[in-house]
Design a protein that fits this description.
Blueprint (H helix, E strand, L loop, with lengths): L17 E5 L4 H12 L3 E6 L12 E3 L5 H15 L4 E4 L16 H29 L2 E6 L12 H21 L4 E8 L5 H14 L3 H11 L11 H12 L10 E4 L8
Parallel strand pairs: 1-2, 1-4, 2-3, 4-5, 5-6, 6-7
Helix pairs in contact: 1-7, 2-3, 3-4, 5-6
Length: 266
């Protein structure tokens, strides 16, 4: 896989590729957009709010892809502005449950989590796949989570939605592979995004400890990370760039775990 200062023949391997990255204003999404741009791709990004330091307005769409209206806007504007699409990287996701009591969650709580983590992907795929199928090529990457295999008590709806996303990805891959479209998923573990960093600081402040202690507490909650540290957004971005590239033509319907060894099972 390439790095940001790679001068090899792979450094501009995505020249001419048109890519949409969701959730691209921070964390893994932002790192992915930058990585793909360095590799030569034209990258359309989308998020619920427009960043204050937006550099290329024509390549950003403000929309909430957890809603039908938001997805429709992203699909229409992406195809109109780019004239088609070669890759979709769907990173949007998260848990918004306000309570750790699973039985206290109502249908609205569950539906909101499913819309955010599962149906956003289903709807975007449904809107953008026809363009890929027409040209006979394309790549779709869904970002899942290791939570689907080790749900925490406080994030069961999120874990269930990510499990469904992975299963959906595998099924979709089987359907569209004969038509030249590759679908894969990625399951990150604990990645220290800016949001995770802020959480670490809040935990440190509330418990009267330092950030290293709070970080270790989060790692311990996952059963520990053999590598000894959380992942970095750019490490996930490099994996995504590889899977989009022409170096991965036979990788279809797979899920890549990137978690520093957190999952102890094969």
């Amino acid at each position: 896989m390439t790095t940001s200062n790679d001068t090899s023949k792979n450094a501009r391997e995505l020249d001419g590729k048109r890519v949409l990255v969701t959730g691209a204003t921070g964390g893994i999404g932002e790192a992915t957009a930058l990585c793909l741009q360095r590799a030569g791709a034209t990258v359309m990004t989308t998020a619920r709010t427009t960043p204050a330091d937006l550099q290329i307005p024509d390549l950003f769409i403000e929309a909430d892809v957890s809603t039908v209206e938001g997805v429709n806007r992203v699909v229409q504007e992406t195809l109109a502005r780019l004239g088609g699409i070669d890759a979709l990287v769907h990173i949007v996701g998260g848990s918004s449950s306000a309570t750790g009591d699973l039985l206290a969650l109502n249908d609205e709580n569950w539906q909101k989590t499913l819309d955010f983590n599962l149906f956003s992907a289903v709807r975007l795929d449904r809107g953008l796949l026809p363009s890929m199928l027409q040209q006979g090529s394309g790549v779709i990457i869904h970002v899942s989570s290791i939570s689907r295999r080790m749900p925490l008590n406080t994030t069961v709806p999120y874990a269930a939605a990510k499990a469904a996303l992975t299963t959906y990805s595998k099924g979709l891959a089987n359907v569209v592979a004969p038509h030249g479209v590759r679908v894969n998923s990625i399951a990150p573990g604990f990645i220290e995004t800016p949001a995770a960093g802020r959480l670490i600081e809040r935990l440190a402040n509330s418990s009267g400890t330092d950030s290293d202690t709070a970080r270790k507490g989060l790692m311990d909650a996952l059963g520990g990370i053999p590598l000894g540290r959380p992942g970095r957004p750019e490490e996930v971005a490099e994996l995504i760039a590889f899977l989009i590239s022409d170096r991965a033509p036979f990788i279809i319907g797979s899920e890549y775990v990137i978690d520093g060894g957190t999952l102890r099972t094969i």
